[in-house]
Amino acid sequence: MRRPTALPMSGRTVLVTGATGGIGRATARGLASLGARVGIVGRDPDRAVAAANAIRQGSPAACVDVFVADLSSQGEVRRLATEVLATRTYFAERRPKQSSPLSRDRGVAGRLWQVSSDLVAQTPAG
After folding, report:
1. Which domains, from first to last, does the chain contain?
2. Which of 43, 104, 105, 124 is the least buried, fewest Cβ under 10 Å from its Cβ?
3. pLDDT tens-place string over residues 90-120
4. CA 51/CA 64 separation, integer angstroms
């Protein structure tokens, strides 16, 4: 009799930006199906919740958390970091010398760079 094997990403936590659609959503869905706890970040709360629900529907055992932030603003990035750190569960199971995966999804091919109000280079939302 074969023993059940753990999923490859079990016990790992991943924060995926741009997870409300496209490659980011596919990345979050794939990581959740591999057993990772997934935090998804999006600008639109309704789209973020819909994406989380779709991921949970595809992987019923998935643990998916929703964070809302507009990452074109440094103030929002700082607020998001504070919110994620405040959950404490994102880093509680982290072991010393164990790296955590990071997915920052944002396509840039063929787009013009702009400068945000925080003087940060960015691509147009879209």
Report:
1. 13-96+109-122 (3.40.50.720)
2. 124
3. 555 544 444 455 555 555 444 454 556 665 6
4. 10
